[in-house]
Structure formats: C-alpha cells, structure tokens
Amino acid sequence: MIFRSTAESDLERFSPLFAGDPPGSMTADRYRRRISTGEHRPEWTWIAEESARGPVLAVAAWWGQPGESLPVSLDSLFAAESLSSADRVSVAAGLITAAQEAFAKAGAPEAPAYHVFLPAGWRDQPSVAAAFGWRERAARQAGLTATLERLSYEWTPRDGLPAPRNRLVFRAEPDDEVFALLFERTLQGTLDATSRQEAAKMGAEAQARQDMAFYRDKMPGERSWWRIAETPGGEVAGFGIPSRNTEFPVVGYLGVLPGHRGHGYAEDILAEITRILAAEAAAQVIRADTDLANRPMAAAFERVGYRNTESHLVLSAP
C-alpha cells in the first residue's frame, strides 16, 4: 500500500471519492474553493493507492489557516466503496498515520484533530452512524482516541432578529489588553472543554492571549465588531466577539465573567453578536457551536432563535 501526499494532477483521480457515504459535506467544488483560499493544499491532502498510479482507495484532506505552513485539522476522510468495512478502517488508519508522521517531521507539535460534522440526531440514523463508525475506528487506530462532541447551531433572518433586553450596555473597546484580561478571567470555571484543556497545558494567561490573537489575526472578522458588556452600573459582565470564517459569519467567542454567571447574560451577549453580524456583515446565516455538556450555552442559543443543525465531533490525541 502506498500512502502519499498529492499533486495538483491527482485531483481528478481522488475527487470522485468525495461523493461517497455521509458525512459528505466535502465536494470537488468545495475542495477547489478551499484550494484557492489556501485552506486546503495538495501537500495536506493524502491518498492511498495499491500501486503507483493505481486506483485511489482512500483520500484524507487536512485543513489549515491561509498562510500557515502546517494544517490544524483533518477535515475529510473518504474510502472507496469497493473496500470492505474492515479494509476501510485499515487503509484509512494507515493513511492518517502516514500523514501525521509527515506533519510531525515538518514541525507539527501534535497530531491535528479530526473534525466531523453529523446531522442532528445522527445516532438514530443507521446509515450516518455506520458511516461515522468506520471513520471513528480508523482515527482511533491512528491515535486520535479523545472524543469531544459539540452542538452546531445556525441562525438565519427568517428566525427573527432578537430584540434588546436592555439589561446590559454594549460598547466597543480598542485596547487589546482589556480583551486579553477578559479572556483570561472568563477561563475561570468555564464549561468549554477545549479552553480548559489548553489553559491547563499552557497557563490561563497564555491561553487567553492565544485566543485573542486568533480572533484578531487569523479570523477575517472585523476587530471593530468586538463588544464589552456592562451592567447599567458600569461593571463589566462579559464580552462578545462576532466574527466570520472564509465562508460564513460566526459567533466567534462569548464570555460571561464568573461573578455575573447565572443571570442569563449569555443570551443578551449572543443577541448583541447576532444583531452586529446581521447589520455589519449582512449575514444571511450565522453559525456557532458549543460543547454538548455546556447546557446553559445551548439553552441561550435556543432562546435567541438559533437551531441545532449538526453535531460536531472532534477526535484528537489525548
């Protein structure tokens, strides 16, 4: 079996696999668009062949930020329908492992996590559960054994623009240091598993500054959209980071400070983020997600009018 990264000339050979079983969000057109933005690259796309230039048995596409030298996540994994279930797992696991080893040699500090988007209620859909099942087994064999499930939400204008409740006052703040401190304070007691894990590894201040820099420097949303939320008495209760990725406006980051939790302020901040994106980004869709375990945030999404459309599974190295 040959596992290798691709060249541009391979696209027509592996792109038919994108039409395979769900989760099938990847298409040849979407892949080409992401190639044009630098989010996908031939060297980040790997294929499995029985022999040189033989039939492509599997393809895996990693995603990364435009301008970066290494990918940050495994975005898509497909295998030929001619393979048995066991062979799909074996070939895909070998493919992921080979690519991870190459990324490590190139300087990747850890194996990129595998991100899978499944329809809401996917466990009750046998075909979807089976399609995810072989992918999950392959990822686990390749060392991605930690699983986090997130709920993906979506808002569109037909869901209605949330009206202000006037419990908080929102203002812009140009000083990045103010936001760095707020990011750090929000980490205390957060229900977001990824933030907890990263803060435990690098420290709360470093994690906070990394998060802030990500939204300021990596995401194409406007820095002018960021808002601080204050009580009528002038006390900071939290903050919101409306943003966007290369395709959609997104609820980038929402934080309520520890002393102000339990009052439903996440709903107020989310509503303000939604209004900003509707006005400033002319949003026809806004997307967001939160950990399955973060029920208060999920409830805030639902009260503001967001609909749970997908489950976002993240498989990563422990």
Brief rundown of the structure:
This protein is α+β, with helices and mostly antiparallel strands and 318 residues long. It has helices at 11-14, 28-37, 85-105, 126-141, 176-186, 193-202, 204-218, 265-280, 295-304; strands at residues 2-5, 45-49, 56-63, 73-79, 113-119, 146-155, 169-171, 227-230, 236-244, 249-256, 286-291, 307-316. The model has no long low-confidence stretch (mean pLDDT 94).
| Tally of DSSP β-strands | 12
Question: Number of helix segments?
Answer: 9
Helix content: 25-40%
Main sheet record: 8 strands, mixed
N- to C-terminal separation? 28 Å
Number of domains: 2
- From the 3D structure, determine the CATH topology of the largest domain: Aminopeptidase
CATH class of the largest domain: Alpha Beta
What letter string, H or E per element, gives the SSE order? Answer: EHHEEEHEHEEHHHEEEHEHE
State the CATH superfamily name of the largest domain: Gcn5-related N-acetyltransferase (GNAT)
Radius of gyration: 21 Å
Average pLDDT figure:
94
Question: What would you say this structure looks like, in words?
Answer:
By secondary structure, the protein is α+β, with helices and mostly antiparallel strands. It folds into two domains: 2-144, Gcn5-related N-acetyltransferase (GNAT) (Aminopeptidase), CATH 3.40.630.30; 157-307, Aminopeptidase (3-Layer(aba) Sandwich). 36% of the residues lie in helices and 25% in strands. It has nine helices and twelve strands. An eight-stranded mixed beta sheet has the order 1-2-3-4-5-12-6-11. Helix 5 packs across helix 7.
